[in-house]
Amino acid sequence: MSMYVVGHKIPDSDSICGAIALAYLKNQINEPAIPTRLGEISPETQFILDKFGFEAPELKLSYAGEDVYIVDHTEKTQAPDDIDQARIVGVVDHHKLGDLTSSAPLECWIRPVGCSNTIIKMMYDFYNVEIPKNIAGIMMCAILSDTVIFKSPTCTTADIKCVEALAEIAGIDDPKELGMEMFRVKSAVADTPIRDLVMRDFKDFNMNGNLVGIGQLEVIDLAVFDDIKADLATDIAKLKTEGNRHSVFLLLTDIMKEGSEMLIASDDANLVEQAYGEKPADGKVWLDGVLSRKKQVVPPLQDAFQKV
User: Fold this and answer.
1) Does residue 92 contact residue 74 with C-beta atoms inside 8 Å?
2) Half-sphere exposure for 90 (CA within 13 Å, toward CB)
3) Are residues 127 and 269 in the same domain?
4) Is the entire prediction scored with pTM above 0.85?
5) Mean pLDDT, rounded, for 190-205
6) Residue 159 near residue 150, CB atoms below 8 Å
7) Predicted confidence (pLDDT) per residue in 206-249, tens digit
8) DHHA2 domain: which residues (predicted)?
9) Is the same domain home to 172 and 297?
10) Going along the chain, which residue ranges are E strands?
């Protein structure tokens, strides 16, 4: 019986590339595995898959009665809806521990690094499995994406060394330039429906019993949002109501200026000032130096919710 290797809902490049890379590794060590996904492929991820010749993993939403290996999260809100009826056999993640549980012992590879694919590279090394050229390429791109081409405060020496090793395997002479190509793809927002943009990289979190959604759009220049920022703000307010959420936040991240403008739809906007020490105005606030949702946005916001 094969296990299914799957990332989080609204998958990013780390979730998709990680599922492919981990499933290949598992098959090489005689643990049959199938990569799957829980949502549509983002433009950046499609660019990566096309460049290295991969089809998107199978879209599979139900896992009841199946063996599941989770990639890039441990949050029930980000897992398959029927995850409680599945058997979780393993986890690879680089985030805080969430609320997923298992009924039996499981394999866990959790490290404080910038990307799940960095950990998967460590797994290849541990099992002494050679990484194919095309898989090395997608793993490298996932790390470049998650670490914002090494600019993110989540980036570690391990991430940089893994990119260097994977680039050599993949035959990529200038991984940083490839990373900029990826972010240029991310920055192309023209003619994209507003809801699609809001949901492009969106995650729900349980914060002290409150459902909180946080989206992020990483671009080279925030000017691409000038004509649609009001529409984005309107849509996150709608999304908050539709999902019965306490709050929805959308980070518009400028990777060159190294900061984020946060758009806010919340039952209590004062939480933003409590979390980040910056007072919002007109439903938004600039957070200088903030690039990482995982490290710089979620933890202080969770602390603020704990005081509610």
Assistant:
1) no
2) 17
3) no
4) yes
5) 94
6) yes
7) 999 999 999 999 999 999 999 999 999 999 999 999 999 999 99
8) 179-305
9) no
10) 3-6, 33-37, 58-59, 67-71, 87-93, 107-110, 202-207, 210-219, 247-254, 259-266, 284-288
In this structure, are strands 247-254 and 87-93 parallel, antiparallel, or unpaired?
Answer: unpaired
Q: Do 233 and 91 reside in the same domain of the chain?
A: no
130 vs 169: CA distance, rounded Å: 10
Residue 268 half-sphere exposure toward CB, CA atoms < 13 A: 13
What gap in Å lies between CA 68 and CA 65, rounded to an integer? 9
Q: In what order do the strands lie in the sheet with 87-93?
A: 58-59, 33-37, 3-6, 67-71, 87-93, 107-110
Q: What is the DSSP letter of 55?
A: P
Tell whether 28 and 103 lie within a shared domain.
yes
CA dist 254 and 256 (Å) reads 5
Q: Is 223 found in the same domain as 87? A: no
Domain shared by 151 and 258, yes or no = no
State phi, psi for 252 to the nearest 5 degrees.
-100, 100
Q: Would you say residue 185 has pLDDT above 90?
A: yes
